[in-house]
Request: fold
Amino acid sequence: MRITIDEEKCCGAGQCVLVAPEVFDQRDEDGVVVLLEAEPPAEQHAAAREAAAVCPAAAIEVLV
Reply:
């Protein structure tokens, strides 16, 4: 699994951080998503997929 983010789309809702804090964080200054693990371990795959699904701006892409 590989994750990419589109910072331009990110609205700073923070849902990704709530669902998968090991994979995502937010910048302090504007709340834009920060990708901590572009290739997360298998135990984080389900949370990463859920984070992408709940992102209101569709800023997260999960590639298999």
Observations:
- The mean pLDDT is 97.
- The first strand starts at residue 2 and ends at 5.
- The beta strands are 2-5, 24-26, 33-35, 60-63.
